[in-house]
Amino acid sequence: MMINTIKLSTELIEESHRNDYWREVTRPAFETVKNPNDEQKSFYGEISAKQVGEIVLGSTKFNAQKYIRDQRSISSFGLDNYMIQIVTAGTLRGDFNGVSSQAFVGDISIMDMAYQFQSEVSAGSRISLVLPRSHMQRSGLNGNIHGRILTSEDPLTAFLIDCAQGFLKVSPHLNETQIEGIQNSIIDMFTLGLNGKEFNQAESSTISLITKQRILDFIDSNIESPNLSTDSIQKRFKISRSHLYRIFAEDEGVATAIRNKRLSLAFKRLTASAGKRVHLAELAYQAGFSDYSAFSKLFQEKYGEKPTDIRNKIQNSIYNNVTYDGKIIKYFKNLREFHYGDEQ
Questions:
Q1: Which of 104-113, 189-198, 310-319 has the highest mean predicted lDDT (pLDDT)?
Q2: What is d(CA 192, CA 155) in angstroms, rounded to the nearest whole number?
Q3: Where does the record place a coiled coil (predicted)?
Q4: Which CATH number covers residue 289?
Q5: Out of 28-42, 64-78, 203-217, 254-268, which region has the weakest mean confidence (pLDDT)?
Q6: Do residue 209 and residue 189 come from a single domain?
Q7: Which range marks the domain in which residue 282 is found?
Q8: How distant, in Å, are the alpha carbons of 122, 335, 340 from that of 103?
Q9: Global confidence as pTM
Q10: Cα–Cα distance measured from residue 287 to residue 116, given in angstroms and rounded to the nearest whole number
């Protein structure tokens, strides 16, 4: 089975354009800004990535940088993945939605892409895995793992690193059946490692996680419908309002979860418009909002700018034809072709 590796590097870009280019490369995951402790004028970065089954595998190199993941980044990248990074050189320090974390060589850091964070990295390198949320939760993942660090002192960490590095190395030589089997094993092992002593939690907790995932799948399937509401979910799943709130307590209730998913859908479609004229009232309606004024106000509260302002910025960007549709490897391919054709 042929698995193509996508390689991107600031070294192939004129120095005057490197900062904008690297920001665009990393944009789906976070906003990259200059690290105040770094004297270099330009970003340096290299990415080598490939899609292996449902997992995105890759390696990166970079100079000192600062990363900010806010609501805009969350809507660009999506909520449905965990990013697991093996620190192979350099350090990481950050605030992961209120959790302070730091990682060193040999550690594994975990980011839940549904949450915000700010982090600073020294010059270094990483091996990264992007794992689907649905697969992790069906594998039995418990609790909030955003900002979790698996330290190099833990023998299990070294085992997980060996598995990830081995998968990265042999993936070009595997067939689809082998990839699926190893992929599921990798996800199961990371889930077990992250659950730790919480692996045998009460059955009710596991049931709540399964129920939440079923409800989220239902929301995603009906997000454009104006009839989607707390009441419709209660009727569909035969669940009380109080129980429903407890399941979605960390999301501030299911109504907030629906609203945020609708705003995220509108943001994705707006940023994917590639500079074309977008009728914003129609965009709001197609995302499940019946009132454009209310939509515009909520949009500005979430993203810090009005829909019209973001549309104007997209139209004026040199990257307005490089769209992101949720598929990381495809996005990287589009960036590569935009700058230097379809050569590896």
A1: 104-113
A2: 13
A3: none
A4: 1.10.10.60
A5: 203-217
A6: no
A7: 203-316
A8: 11, 30, 35
A9: 0.72
A10: 23
